[in-house]
Design a protein that fits this description.
The protein is of the alpha+beta class. It is built from two helices and six strands; from the N terminus they run E-H-E-E-E-H-E-E.
Length: about 80
């Protein structure tokens, strides 16, 4: 079985660039305030969602392993 992730968007950082929606439309959408949110906070590991997090211009997307809470993105320093 593959990894499961918990995905969060820090709404205090999100600027509504929609890069996440363009890179992973099955993972994110913009709300009426033009801020991103995950469509399902808990999901199977997904390369497109990881690419969305890596390319967020304000690094507002955090991904952790659902089992254990270890960070996937951003990586620990």
């Amino acid at each position: 079985m593959g990894d499961r992730w918990h995905v969060e968007v820090d709404r205090s950082l999100c600027i509504g660039s929609a890069q996440c929606v363009h890179r992973a439309p099955e993972g994110f959408s913009l709300d009426g305030g033009m801020q991103s949110h995950p469509l399902a906070p808990d999901m199977d590991a997904n390369e497109q969602v990881l690419a969305a997090a890596e390319n967020c211009p304000v690094e507002a997307i955090m991904i952790t392993l659902l089992a254990g809470g270890e960070p996937v993105f951003p990586p620990e320093e």
